[in-house]
Amino acid sequence: MSNTDISPLNSTLYREDIKKLAKTCLNYNKLKNKNILITGSNGLIGSFFIDTLMYLNRHNDLNCHIYAIGLRKSADDRFPDYIKNKLFTYISHDVNLPLKIKDKADFVIHLASNTHPVLYATHPISTITTNVIWTKNMLDYAVKSKSKRFLFASSNEIYGENRWDVELFDENYCGYINSNTLRAGYPESKRCGEALCQAYIEEQKLDIVIARFTRTYGPTMLTNDSKAISQFILKALNNEDIVLKSKGTQYYSFTYVYDAVLWLFTVLLNGYSGEAYNISNIESDITLADLAKTIADFVCKKVVFEIPNETESKWFSKATKARLDSRKIENIGYKPVYDIKKGVERTISILKEIGNY
């Protein structure tokens, strides 16, 4: 398989998603002739976001210059068509060091993070430092650039465990997190990242919006993604039974990547400075057991149960019910397109189409 074969852009269905997103009524002209710097560019959300911007450059004459930060090898594999494009600059950078580039960015999108559970347990230090030190470095760069807006990608994990006093978490909800655990490194560092954003708003007068993403999935997911839904999808693509390593009673919000990026653009273009917005879709709230069955049924397989080993238990989320309230963001944008069934089926269909698995 050649490097270009692994790009979702080789899928007709994926290109349809990009085209559909580019044709929404969002005011993309706010980005016209602007420089956008994005971290986490090779990731699930970042790569879809970049594909959309490059489509807008090509078909809407957006003339938006993208500065993508990530791993060079991944860039060559994921963005082969963009590497020589004059509107695309790839930057390989150590996230723990200040960003020193001459070019200034009008918009900074900070998506970089260890975003799947295995890394929380196997690389807990870098999980924390990426969410704190790297966030500070990017905020400092935005101040020096006099950026128009900084978007920080946070997480539903900042809410912690449900105190069983609400059905849906709104943006002001505060659940419980036991900070004296290995698993706490990710949510606590995301909380710290949000606090840093508020500090820079006050002290540096930076315009900042926060997008709290929930469990996101889609055809741009990485093969090493250890989130439950990603592992279920990988099993389905390999024509294997879906493995569930719990009773599956956990009740979570999920978001197909198209809708996650639609909301990302919405927060970037329409959000109010200093505000955090839940990125979620109530039509995609589901228990892990029902999710596993939905995926198994789509590929005519069954769900099997396994007891997690000691290492796996360390990275599992302790939250048993974490559903996000999306009313705040719906007031500034649009309703999502894909419910969980449609999103899962589209993900599997796209990945089968490009033959990446």
Question: Can you walk me through this structure?
Answer:
By secondary structure, the protein is an alpha/beta fold. The chain has a single domain, classed as Rossmann fold, CATH 3.40.50. It has 12 helices and 14 strands. It has a 7-stranded parallel β-sheet with strand order 3-2-1-4-5-6-11, sandwiched between helices. Helix 3 (72-78) links the parallel strand 2 and strand 3 (88-92). Helix 2 crosses helix 8 (257-270) and helix 7 (228-237) runs parallel beside helix 9. Mean pLDDT is 90; it is low at 1-5.
Features:
alpha/beta; 7-stranded parallel beta sheet; 12 helices; single chain; 357 residues
Kindly summarize this structure in a few lines.
The protein is an alpha/beta fold and 357 residues long.
What is the topological layout?
Elements (H helix, E strand, L loop, with lengths): L11 H11 L12 E5 L4 H16 L5 E6 L1 H7 L9 E5 L14 E4 L6 H6 L1 H22 L3 E7 L29 H20 L3 E6 L1 E3 L10 H10 L4 E3 L6 E2 L1 E3 H14 L5 E4 L6 E2 H11 L4 E3 L4 H6 L5 E2 L4 H4 L9 H15 L3
Parallel strand pairs: 1-2, 1-4, 2-3, 4-5, 5-6, 6-11, 7-10, 8-13, 9-14
Antiparallel strand pairs: 9-12
Helix pairs in contact: 1-2, 2-8, 5-6, 7-9, 9-12
Widest sheet: strand ordering: 3-2-1-4-5-6-11
Helical amount among residues, as a percent range?
A: 25-40%
Low-confidence stretches: 1-5
Largest sheet: 7 strands, parallel
**Portion in strands:** 15-25%
- Strand tally is 14
Shape: globular
Question: What do the pLDDT scores average to?
Answer: 90
Distance between the termini: 11 Å
- CATH architecture field: 3-Layer(aba) Sandwich
Radius of gyration: 19 Å
CATH superfamily, called what?
NAD(P)-binding Rossmann-like Domain
| SSE topology string | HEHEHEEHHEHEEHEEEHEEHEHEHH
By DSSP (H or I, 4+ residues per run), the number of helices equals: 12
Number of domains: 1
What is the name of the CATH topology?
A: Rossmann fold
The secondary structure category is alpha/beta
CATH C-level category: Alpha Beta
